[in-house]
Specification:
Blueprint: H1 2-6, H2 10-30, H3 35-54, H4 56-68, H5 75-78, H6 93-106, E1 120-124, H7 136-154, E2 158-162, E3 164-165, H8 169-182, H9 187-190, H10 192-206, H11 209-216, E4 227-228, H12 232-247, E5 251-261, E6 266-268, E7 273-288, E8 297-302, E9 313-316, E10 330-332, E11 340-345, E12 357-360, H13 366-375, H14 401-414, E13 418-431, E14 439-448, H15 451-462, E15 467-469, H16 472-482, E16 487-488, E17 490-491, E18 501-505, H17 508-513, E19 522-524, H18 528-539, E20 544-547, E21 551-552, H19 554-558, H20 561-564, H21 574-579, E22 584-588, H22 592-607, E23 614-618, E24 621-622, H23 639-646, H24 648-657, E25 665-666, H25 669-692, H26 698-705, H27 721-742, H28 746-774, H29 798-819, H30 824-833, H31 855-877, E26 886-892, H32 895-903, H33 905-912, E27 914-922, H34 925-931, E28 937-943, E29 946-951, H35 958-984, E30 995-1001, E31 1004-1010, E32 1016-1021, H36 1028-1034, H37 1038-1041, E33 1044-1048, H38 1071-1086, E34 1090-1093, H39 1096-1104, H40 1110-1113, H41 1136-1148, H42 1165-1172, H43 1177-1188, E35 1199-1202, H44 1213-1218, E36 1225-1229, ...
Parallel strand pairs: 1-2, 3-4, 9-11, 15-23, 22-23, 24-25, 26-27, 32-33, 33-34, 35-36, 36-37
Antiparallel strand pairs: 5-6, 5-14, 7-8, 7-13, 9-12, 10-11, 14-16, 17-21, 18-19, 18-20, 26-29, 28-29, 30-31, 31-39, 32-38
Helix pairs in contact: 2-3, 6-30, 7-24, 15-16, 15-22, 23-24, 24-25, 25-28, 25-29, 25-30, 27-28, 27-29, 27-31, 28-29, 28-33, 29-30, 39-41
């Protein structure tokens, strides 16, 4: 036998090893069952082993055939026959993912299915640059778009995900020019035609790298339709678009100020210029009065002295009395040889900047250019296109602009024209592509008038033709289009779409003598032949035509992408007729202007239709600390490295479920690893089911392939409670996930799948199914045995086991279909190994919506689960050994439920580790007393009408338990004594502390500080729930710096989430996790008293869960009362009792101050208060009295107002009246939007004279929950309470209370 096995193929050998393992397992199980059953089972297994050995050569042949076809299933397997597949111990992503993808692509599964009966669903892929290398941004868009495409495909839609790449004019030309430079050559040396050929060669060699990397991520786009923005069809579309725009009068050539990149030698778009804060200098110098005999001068300041040579005026503000007398006079331009310019008055001048007098350089500053046009100033260009100064710069001609800056300043020093030079932080414009400093200069360029194109684009969003997700970006979209400027579309490059303009010359000599071949006469045409025909018709024969040397902006061709890729301008093209307009445009929010808005304008302007109906914008992918990934920080994560370590499925699931539309994703590899564990969970569940099917006949396999429980007809007859529960729960999951897919809520869909698969299916149903799969007689309690994680699928009750196998296969099949869009590889592999119908999971039908359910079964099984949890908790509390089974009495008052529990006792005993022969079910306490054993019982009350009695005898060792409790009591008393001793020691002095640092957020550098003369520093930790690890890792010195802490339980701070009581055990939203983390954090990490802060429903849920322990509640002096989520109309049923608990807390505890945060509506605080408690006016008044009015003794109240997310509306007079100016106040005000009016904040500042610091944080806004650890938490708003007044026994205060109050400082 061994010799035969050695000659088997790997597949056959694996199967033999699996059978041999089964034989060994049978021997173990046989010891628990009758000898006859054991012998029969072993005989069947050995018989199967012998059959495999006899057919070794056939298996080897089959394996070779399978390998040659990338593991593709056979036609028989597609029809429901048993496949020749044995799953290995673990899924191997490195090997199988690429094999599966190759099979998918070669089989044509990515193309639209002509047999699909649903509507068209088209997604145009944002074309990555042909120079691109895969990064996390690509991984994000591939994941989200692939989820959309795979769902639509399974839902029966004619799905086209259209891929392609962009020629990336600047980037690609830059790459090739660097290669030429390394070779000692240049594009000028090659000439235009040879250079273009060289770039095409580079593209053919390297251009496919990025698309192959996209394949590695599982992108199911139709590669047979792949397009390139410079291919023939798209190039024709570009020419057609330009001609049509010109025919409409929207194209013109003119001299305007552009952003010029000297190294790249081209103009770049405003959107391609990035401004960075960099250290520089502010140069103060003298502008001598030309008409003065004395040394009279105007003091002027600039950051770019070299541009002085291009000045054409000096401007002052007409309201500035210092310079009124100089207006109308002339000054001499320094180092210009005596050129004079006027002094003018203009409201634009900021009197506070520099000296208040502003040099005007229309040729090299965009603001000065506008002033120059407005008042008619001359425009002088002093710079060549390579960044050197030209002849207009006089003695400095030929010098580099930065060298000229230094030399000019030295010469001015020598001439006595320098006042001073001081350090100054400047906003430096840099090219997004090349990184060099961009130079504003006036240049002849081609432009497209955008206002006529913007009007229908604005209307399309306004009337709902186009939906932008998330909705908040509509405001940004509208603002940009309403203020849009004409688009400079010409680029001084050789790689790209050459502008379809031909200049007309009378002779070749005229053409050769013209600068770059240009003339005042030109023709706009689709090609050279059409240009010649048009020119001859207008100016006659014998003309010489020269094509415009510039190329179009890359974004011009990209703006045509949704329709040019489908065959436009050929209106009869099949793809254009079937798939345009497209349905969804998914891309990053950072290119809303670059690309999305331009596609909408071009689409509506050229096709008359909106190019898509939905715009889904995803956020940026940041590191786990919320920082933007960059090489300088060393925090760049390569997607392919993550794929190699964790598998594509784990990365995709993390990307799809880690954020919502428009929100940035903080990518943690810990989360990726957790999701890799999820793939392992699915794999093991699949292997468990497959093991249960080893003994079934081919006929049953075929029957299982078509198992369908979506309707509650005869298929539900004879199902157990657990079967009916899991099917009902599964069908609810289908409805939830389907609804999420339809509204593109991938985060909620993924979380629901994760929770159900791990919790409901694997932890509950799979375990419960063993009662029927492994029991000799399901109806007999005494026969139930726990297989301890193993067992055979053969049962003495074949019907019961067969029904359960059917439910297992059906439920797992549906689950795989739901998960497939997120995790395509492992789900396909599992689906192929299990009973199924069809060739590929990718084309399997999406599960039926609104399928059958049994509400009563769901309720009853939830009762069973609560019962099992109660037993497990009791076992844990008393330290009962894992394998030890105990007796129990179930008290079930409801007759129907009692009958169900009696029937399901095998499941209860299996899951709760109860001794079947010692379990009884009774209906009343009297019956329970009679059935209970002597010695007393532990009572576990599950809920009203359901109770469990566990006999004390044998449950735990009484002596050991008493010893444990005594030791724990002594420890607590010792700690309490130490704390009280320190608090009561009159010599204890709280010294002033200082803690400060910097926090980086979206380009803002914010300083946070806590300092003071006396008092007790209090650290406010926002968004605490689930983020303890973040603080534990990043703030290890907290206990040494702060003496008290306010902890905000924002672990579940949004009212649109489901009931946290249903959260999975390992979820951060689980009540138990909150309690344990809070205890760990306060006692082990901080080592200091904690003031508790309740933010939104997260804090309320914490109250309900008992997290606010009595010893902490009694010491509460600061409570964060957030009204977000407390609106009556937004409350879910489970939240209402929490609000009531919160109201009781207000009445029963002494609150020292209030913290208004997360007010996420434009209503006033007063209105929100009224809405939050509209059903109880007395409570409303009580809330105002207890919080807004200083009802406690003077000095005992310290008010801290946080309006970080307050987004408008006048503050209520009630608030100002309730807290008189004598109350010390610290105010942190952050606008929800960067342009938010801060007038109300200034009014607060004026109202409270005790405020020593008023802080404006524009752009902070409300932070979403998943960003809380990195946005709100690190903004440590220091808050200091006076220890003398706070600890006063009579509630009085000292006269120095106001001085002792410390404010939170967060200075931007």
């Amino acid at each position: 036998m061994a010799g035969s096995t050695a000659r088997l193929s790997p597949i056959a050998a694996t199967h033999c090893r699996g059978v041999a393992t089964s034989v060994r397992s049978c021997s173990i199980i046989g010891s628990l069952r009758c000898h006859q059953q054991q012998q029969q089972l072993q005989a069947r297994r050995c018989s199967a082993l012998a059959a495999v050995v006899r057919e070794a050569s056939s298996a080897a042949t089959a394996e070779a055939a399978s390998s040659s076809n990338n593991g593709a299933p056979s036609a028989a397997a597609a029809a429901g026959a048993r496949p020749n597949i044995q799953l290995p111990k673990n899924f191997d992503p490195a090997e199988r993912e690429q094999q599966l993808y190759k099979w998918w692509e070669e089989s044509g599964f990515f193309a639209p299915d002509p047999a699909a009966t649903g509507p068209a669903f088209t997604i145009p892929m944002p074309p990555p640059n042909v120079t691109g290398k895969l990064h996390m941004g690509h991984a994000m868009f591939v994941t989200l778009q692939d989820v959309m495409a795979r769902y639509a495909r399974m839902a029966g839609k004619q799905t086209l995900w259209l891929p392609g790449t962009d020629h990336a004019g600047i980037a690609t030309q830059n790459v090739v020019e660097k290669q030429l430079e390394a070779e000692g050559s240049s594009r000028a040396a090659l000439g235009r035609e040879a250079f273009e050929e060289r770039v095409w060669q580079w593209k053919e060699q390297y251009g496919g790298f990025i698309t192959n990397q996209l394949r590695r991520l599982g992108a199911s786009c139709d590669w047979s339709r792949e397009r390139f923005t410079l291919d023939a069809g798209l190039s024709d579309a570009v020419a057609e678009a330009f001609v049509q725009l010109a025919d409409k009068g929207l194209v013109y050539r003119g001299a305007y100020m552009v952003n010029w990149s000297p190294r790249l030698g081209t103009a770049v778009s405003d959107l391609e210029v990035e401004y960075s804060e960099e250290p520089g200098h502010l140069f103060f110098f003298k502008y001598p009065l030309a008409d003065s005999d004395t040394e009279e001068y105007l003091p002027v300041a600039t950051t770019r002295p070299e541009t002085i040579l291009g000045d054409t005026a000096v401007a002052v503000n007409p309201a500035d009395e210092r310079f009124n007398a100089y207006v109308g006079r002339r000054v001499t331009v320094p180092m210009s040889g005596g050129r004079t310019i006027p002094v003018i008055a203009d409201d634009y001048v900021d009197m506070e900047f520099g000296t208040g007098a502003l040099k005007i350089t229309p040729g090299h500053d965009p603001n000065d250019y506008e002033i120059g046009k407005r008042v008619g100033l001359e425009t002088i260009n002093i710079m060549n296109k390579d960044g050197s100064l030209n002849a207009a710069a006089g003695a400095y001609a030929g010098m580099d602009r930065f060298d000229a800056r230094q030399q000019l300043w030295k010469d001015m020093e020598a001439a006595g024209l320098v006042i001073k030079k001081e350090a100054y932080t400047t906003r430096v414009p840099r090219s997004q592509r090349g990184g060099e400093v961009v130079e504003p200069l006036v240049s002849e360029q081609w432009f497209v008038r955008m206002a006529p194109l913007a009007e229908p684009a604005l209307a399309a969003v306004a009337d709902g033709s186009i939906t932008i997700m998330p909705e908040r970006f509509e405001k940004i979209y509208n603002m940009w289009l309403e203020n849009i400027k004409d688009w400079c579309v010409s680029r001084q490059l050789w790689w790209g779409h050459r502008i379809p303009v031909w200049y007309v010359h009378a002779s070749q000599a005229d053409a050769d003598s013209a600068e770059e071949g240009r003339s005042d006469r030109y023709i706009v045409a689709r090609n050279a032949a059409e240009a010649a025909e048009k020119a001859a018709a207008q100016w006659g024969q014998g003309l010489v035509l020269v094509q415009e040397p510039d190329v179009l902006d890359t974004w011009f061709s990209s703006g045509l992408w949704p329709f040019s890729t489908l065959g436009w301008p050929n209106s009869s093209a099949a793809d254009l007729k079937q798939f345009y307009p497209t349905q969804v445009l998914e891309t990053g929010h950072d290119i809303l202007f670059f690309w999305v808005a331009r596609m909408i304008m071009m689409g509506m302007g050229l096709t008359g239709q909106a190019p898509f109906s939905t715009v889904y914008l995803h956020g940026l992918v940041r590191d786990d600390k919320g920082r933007k990934m960059s090489k300088s920080l060393g925090n760049v994560i390569d997607p392919l490295d993550v794929v190699a370590q964790y598998g594509t499925d784990a990365l995709r699931f993390t990307m799809a479920t880690g954020t919502t539309a428009g929100q940035d994703l903080n990518l943690s590899l810990d989360r990726v690893n957790s999701n890799r564990n999820f793939t392992n969970k699915l794999w093991n569940a699949g292997k468990f089911i497959l093991f249960q099917l080893e003994g079934v006949s081919d006929a049953e396999w075929q029957q299982l392939s078509g198992a369908d429980f979506s309707s509650s007809s005869s298929s539900w007859q004879g199902l157990s409670l657990s079967d009916r529960w899991v099917l009902s729960s599964l069908h609810q999951l289908v409805d939830q996930v389907t609804a999420c897919q339809e509204r593109f809520d991938f985060n909620e869909a993924g979380q629901a799948l994760y929770s159900w698969a791990w919790g409901e299916f694997a932890d509950w149903y799979v375990e419960a199914s063993k009662a029927r799969l492994y029991s000799a007689n399901f109806s007999s309690v005494s026969s139930v045995e726990d297989p301890d994680g193993g067992g055979s699928a053969v049962s003495a009750d074949p019907h019961a086991a067969g029904v359960t196998r059917g439910v297992l296969v059906y439920a797992f099949n549906v689950l795989l279909r739901l998960v497939h869009p997120f995790m395509p590889f492992i789900t396909e592999e599992l689906w192929q190994a299990l009973p199924h119908r069809g060739v590929t999971l990718m084309k399997a039908a999406w599960p039926s919506h609104e399928a059958a359910g049994d509400a009563a079964a769901v309720t009853q099984f939830e009762q069973l689960k609560e019962l099992v949890r109660g037993v497990r908790n009791a076992r844990t509390e008393y330290g009962l050994e894992q394998a030890r089974k105990v007796a129990a009495v179930l008290v079930v008052s409801d007759p129907q439920l009692r009958e169900v529990m009696q029937q399901e006792l095998p499941v209860v005993c299996l899951l709760a580790k109860l001794e079947p022969s010692k379990v009884s079910v009774v209906g009343s306490a009297e019956e329970a007393s009679a059935a209970a054993p002597a010695g007393g019982c532990v009572s576990v009350v599950v809920n009203e009408g359901l109770q469990l009695l566990l006999p004390l005898a044998g449950l735990f060792d009484v002596d050991k338990e008493l010893a444990r409790l005594t030791k724990q009591k002594a420890k607590v008393e010792k700690e309490l004594g130490g704390i009280m001793g320190r608090l009561n020691n009159p010599k204890t002095e709280i010294k002033p502390g200082v803690f400060e640092g910097y926090w980086q957020w979206q380009g803002h550098k914010i300083r946070y500080q806590c300092s003071g003369d006396s008092g007790e520093p209090v650290l406010l930790v926002h968004g605490f729930g689930g983020n303890c690890d973040h603080w534990r890792k990043n703030t290890p010195q907290l206990g040494q710096r702060f003496r008290a802490f306010s902890i905000d339980l924002l672990g579940y701070g949004f009212s649109d989430k489901p009931d946290p009581r249903q959260a999975p055990p390992n979820s951060i939203y689980n009540f138990d996790n909150w309690g344990q983390q809070l205890v760990d954090f306060t006692e082990q990490v901080i080592g200091a008293p904690a003031y508790i802060s309740c933010n939104s429903v997260g804090g309320l849920a914490g109250l309900k869960a008992g997290i606010l322990r009595p010893d902490l509640v009694r010491g509460v002096q600061l409570i964060n009362i957030s009204l977000r989520g407390l609106h009556v109309e937004r409350q879910q049923p489970w939240q209402r009792p929490l609000v009531a608990a919160f109201q009781r807390l207000l009445r029963e505890t002494s609150l020292g101050s209030a913290f208004f945060g997360s007010v996420a509506t434009p209503r006033t605080v007063k209105n929100i208060l009224c809405q939050a408690y509209a059903d109880d006016s007395a409570v409303t008044d009580e809330l105002v009295d207890a919080i807004l009015k200083p009802g406690l003794q003077p000095g005992a109240v310290d008010v801290f107002l946080d309006f970080i997310s307050y987004s408008g509306g006048p503050l209520p007079e009630q608030l100002l009246a309730a807290t008189p100016p004598s109350v010390p106040v610290s105010i942190l005000w952050g606008a929800a939007d960067p342009w938010e009016d801060m007038a109300e904040g200034r009014r607060l500042f004026a109202h409270y004279p005790c405020v020593t610091e008023f802080v404006e944080l524009p752009g902070v806004g409300h932070c979403p929950q998943d960003e809380a650890p990195h946005l709100v938490n690190p903004l440590i708003e220091a808050f200091v309470l006076s220890s003398s007044s706070s600890n006063s026994t009579d509630g009085g205060s000292s006269s120095s209370t106001a001085a002792a109050q410390q404010q939170g400082v967060a200075a931007a």
